[in-house]
Amino acid sequence: MELFLQQVLSGVANGAIYASVALAIVMIYQAIHHLNFAQGEMAMFSTFIAWQLMQWGMPFWAALPVTVALSFAGGVAIERIVMKPIEHAPVLTHVVVFIALFTILNSAAGFIWDFTIKPFPTPFGTAPVLGNGLLSAHQAGMIAVVLVMLVLLYLFFRYTNTGLAMRAAAANPASARLVGIRVGWTTALGWGMASAIGSVAGMLIAPVVFLEPNMMLTILLYGFAGAVLGGLTSPAGAVLGGFIVGVVENLAGTYIPVVGPELKLPIALVLIVAVLVVKPSGLLGRRTVQRV
Amino acid sequence: MALRTCTLLAMAVGASALAAAPAMAQTAPGVTDTEIKIGNINPYSGPASAYGVIGKTIGAYFAKINAEGGVNGRKINYISYDDGYSPPKAVEQARKLVESDEVAIVFQPLGTPSNSAIQKYMNSKQVPQLFVATGATKWNDPKNFPWTMGWQPNYQTEGKIYGKYIADNLPNGKVGVIFQNDDYGKDLLKGLKDGLGAKAASMIIAEVPYEVSVPTIDSQIVQLKGSGADILVTIATPKFAAQVIRKVAELGWKPTHFLNNVAISVGAVIKPAGPENAKDILSTAYLKDATDPADKESPAFKEWEAFMDKYYPDGNKLDGSTVFGYAAAQTMVQVLKQAGKDLSRANIMKEAANLKNFEIGVLVDGIKVNTSPSDFAPIEQLQMQKFDGERWHRFGPVMSGESS
After folding, report:
1. Which of A287, B90, B227, B303 has its CA 20 to 30 A from that of B105?
2. Residue B79, CB half-sphere, CA atoms under 13 Å: how many?
3. Which residues from chain B sit within 8 angstroms of residue A6, using beta carbons?
4. What is the average pLDDT score of chain B?
């Protein structure tokens, strides 16, 4: 029983990691209706920027807003410089550009900061919160931050003009343009916000997995699984999906003898496929109906 | 028909080889009266570029040998290429070294994947792939690969020493193992079981693998703690080892912790994981340690320091790779000395397999380099060491993990 509880809690803690990445994925999906493969590397790069700022003597709470702002600007810049010119190009072109961004950011980080692991400070401390170290303060803090981000996003999309404009631009670009929304800029805004959310995710994840250029490689995959499971159109779904993936992965790895720790990653992939086959819109996602 | 063409072709090649033989008799490939060409492949770029220091140190050591007059009157012409730790690139560079630069041997190519990729090629070309810089056990296979030889203690040797230590000192322990699920992890695990001997089955109560693709190993450590183990053997690469050390501390678990020596770097593993969390961890060593005051005062280390100051002033003296490269290069020079005038590839290989109690100053005292035609594992001894919260302390006798 204790083992079960520990694995669930450890799964929830890992789930927070996936959920934070899933949020960034949903954000970009809202804006461009594609999955950005470079999302994880953008988050990793932002985290390195935060680390560098702290190396230069900035305290954590100063480095955090500066990094988020820089990441936001970086996301907008990528959209304006790289994505805008190929706006009307086929999907494959976009995919190739995503992969290029992925490789460029990964190698650049390796070149600038090298590939050895670096400890990343946590603002929450590492003291155990629950029982004998079942959940550390950082993990609890991470879960809290993910939920706060979720509420903020919900309020943003629901009650602000910019949020509504973004939803309109994503749902129906032509009509949105006709009512005076600058659709091009809402896309850029989407990139900026996804990048900013990613930077927060990176800073939450780095204290757990250590900072290095490849840290987001597989986390992004789990993030995708979480986002698809919960619904790519729903931030709440993405967070829920992230937690479910974390827990299912741990329990399956521990209790299903055939699975074992070797097959934990495929579980994420099986989840993606299963959801797409059975309920393509995800647990909380809206069905998109298109008139033909 | 096809067969006959082949035979004819083989005869023709044989004949031309014979015809060329008189010209070759004087000078072996890559060797002239004044120099010997030694090739090397190292990751100077890419994810493992930190190891590139080894290739640079070797170059610096050969420069020292040349400045002192060379070996048997011949200077060493050292040609080192970058493969970025990528096996296909390693194949390309090995071909370039053998076919275009025409080196006599390829010395200390680095990395298990890269060496695996070039092993067949080197053996079919009959060019020595000497003292490879990887800990895999498979380089000790003179029957199938007579042109390939390892250097450092291999993973099985290391695992065996942990097994022996546990069997002798903690005979009632319950062992939990976390291992990387690939050849390296399984190699070390096999060594551990061999070392425990008959007790392996009853003493190891949990073996948990992890894939390099997982973000964290938290779940595995939780599982191992839950198994009731009081001895933890961590077979993991630096990033995961750091995670293990930290997670074990977070859980408040206090097992006797053995950590494989690919992940004992104080700078790259222990510091990120928190030195206080790593206190009392056990591991093994075969090289002396620049941070150990006693080692630092030894004459061999003074020599090494003088060498670093003069020939590799940019090098980081706290980086163990500089000691590693220095020791490996000395082994190479010893083989060349033993080979004397006959620097044919076959004779170099013969002498490499004929090292007898060769001592290298920067190796832990008591460790001797030994090879024979049936033993292609030069270093097979290690000494246990313990982390005191600040640095590693060696203790106990030098232990042998020789395969019987």
Report:
1. B303
2. 18
3. 222, 226
4. 90
Dihedral of CA B367/B368/B371/B372: which sign?
negative
CATH of the domain at A90: 1.10.3470
pLDDT of residue A30: 83
**A204 assigned to some structural domain:** yes
Nearest to B209 among A118, A205, A262 (CB): A262
DSSP line for A63-87:
HHHHHHHHHHHHHHHHIIIIIGGGT
A289 lies in a domain?
Answer: no
Number of domains in chain A: 1
Q: What ipTM was assigned to the predicted interfaces of this complex? A: 0.86
- A144-155 in b/e burial notation, b at 16+ Cβ within 10 A? ebbeebbeebee
Cβ of A265 within 8 Å of Cβ of B47? The answer is no
Length in residues, chain B: 404
Dump pLDDT digits (tens) for B186-200: 999 999 999 999 999
The domain covering B28-153+298-373 belongs, at the CATH homologous superfamily level, to: Response regulator (3.40.50.2300)
DSSP-derived secondary structure letter, B397:
E
The reply to whether residue B238 touches residue A132, judged by beta carbons under 8 angstroms, is no
Q: Which amino acid is at B43?
A: P
User: Does domain B155-285+385-400 bear CATH number 3.40.50.2300?
Assistant: yes
Does a structural domain hold residue A286? no
Joined tokens for residue B252: 């408040």
- Contacting A residues, span 235-254, partner chain B, CB-CB under 8 Å: 249-250, 253-254
Amino acid at A227: A
